[in-house]
Amino acid sequence: MTSAILLQHAVPAALPASGCPAHITYGEAGVVGLIQGVSELFPVSSLGHNVLIPALAGGCWAQNLNVAAPESPYLAFIVGLHVATAAAMIIYFWRDWARIIGGFFTSLGHLLRPAPGTSRWQMRNADEKLAWMIIIATIPVGITGVAGEHAFRVVFGHAIWAAVFLIANGLILLAAERHSRARPAAGGPAAGHPAGAMVPVLVPAGAGRAGARHAAGHQAIRGREIAQAVATDQRLAAEGYWRGTIIGAFQIFALLAGISRDGMVMAGGMFRGLTRQDAARFSFLLSAPVIAAAGLYKIPDLFGPKGHGILGQTLLASVLAGIGGYLSVRFLVRYLRTRTLTPFAVYCLLLGLGSIVYLEIIK
After folding, report:
1. Backbone angles phi, psi at 304, to 5 degrees
2. Nearest 5°: phi and psi at 98?
3. Is the CB of residue 37 less than 8 Å from the CB of residue 49?
4. Is there a contact between 170 and 352 (Cβ–Cβ < 8 Å)?
5. Rounded to whole angstroms, how far apart are CA atoms 52 and 65?
6. Distance between CA atoms of 22 and 303, rounded to whole angstroms?
7. Is 201 exposed, middle or buried (0-12, 13-18, 19+ CB in 10 A)?
8. CA–CA separation, 95 vs 198, rounded Å?
9. What does the pLDDT look like over 291-348, one tens digit per residue?
């Protein structure tokens, strides 16, 4: 996540234990890569997991996987995984991104040469408007991350705070679910359809025949998802720039280790009246540019002193993170049509409470 960038100057760690490998091992890399791939997109905070893993495991894991250590190679390692997860999302939603990016460039044409009688800033379709909504909605977290870097560093250096914020994350998800059930969605799927219901949409000519031939296959399922995505994007674009920016600003909370960026955007959307699946869609669309930008900003570290001796481990973990991220988003797109965020909230509460008990009482 974007907040990983802020960890590089956190509180110094204790001296390494003797007898441990000098670098992250392939076994450690594989485990962290899989956890990163899943937790980055699930509303359970990948950064929180990355901070808690070494603290809970102890021993050599605490030495090699310590994001709080000065000039930590683990931080550069995590950045590589972020790029892999962002790539997985772009691959899964490539048709959607092709539409949205195309809308962005056509909107630039309107700005340079507006049609007679129209405003320069008048968007002509949902793709154009959604492209600018995504750009504008990422500005608050970007500004806050840079301006508040020093304040966030101290918090990110302590596993106990990651556990506390993980509990907060779970409570926010529960509150969003309760709010969603208590209030009809303002940005619901369609008039006459209950929140959470599948919405019938027009499928392009020929898609019916293809669906009949592959009714039980992934292609037919993916085709229906694409058609649903078009309808969802139209509803999101209708929300407007101001509401989109407010929802996007919920990402600021994810600068705290233990708070999930995707979870906060989903919760923010549900608090603002979106259905769960529409809020999740907006969250996934916001994920790729935020994660990719943060990763690309720090990726040079992997080819400098911080990345010395861990390039192979980073490659292995990135592949696993990319596969995990792709499968996770595929699962979540389908899961959130009819299921709630409650299981993820309960998981965060249990992991956070268990971590506090272990770190403060047992360990």
Report:
1. -115, -160
2. -65, -40
3. no
4. yes
5. 10
6. 18
7. middle
8. 21
9. 777 777 667 767 766 667 788 888 999 999 999 999 999 999 889 888 999 999 999 9
CB 339 within 8 A of CB 51: no
pLDDT in tens, 109-166: 877 776 666 666 677 788 899 999 999 998 888 788 767 665 665 566 678 989 999 9
Tell me the C-alpha distance between 33 and 24, whole Å: 12
d(C-alpha 313, C-alpha 293), whole Å? 22
Pick the residue with more confidence: 199 or 269? 269
> Which two three-digit tokens encode residue 211?
């669906």
Please give the model's pTM, rounded to 2 decimal places: 0.79
The CA distance from 223 to 234, in Å, is: 17
Nearest to 24 by CA among 67, 82, 56: 67
Contacts of 353 (CB under 8 A, 6+ apart): 163, 167
Give yes or no for a contact between 32 and 50, defined as CB atoms under 8 angstroms apart: yes
Three-class secondary structure assignment of the chain: CHHHHHHHHCCCCCCCCCCCCCCCCHHHHHHHHHHHHHHCCCCCCHHHHHHHHHHHHCHHHHHHCCCCCCCCHHHHHHHHHHHHHHHHHHHHCHHHHHHHHHHHHHHHHHHHCCCCCCCCCCCCCHHHHHHHHHHHHCHHHHHHHHHCHHHHHHHHCCHHHHHHHHHHHHHHHHHHHHHHHHCCCCECCCCCCCCCCCCCCCCCCCHHHHHHHCCCCHHHHHHHHHHHHHHHHHHHHHCCHHHHHHHHHHHHHHHCCCCCHHHHHHHHHHHCCECHHHHHHHHHHHHHHHHHHHHHHHHHHHHCHHHCCCHHHHHHHHHHHHHHHHHHHHHHHHHHHHCCCHHHHHHHHHHHHHHHHHHHHHC
Report which residue type is found at 68: A
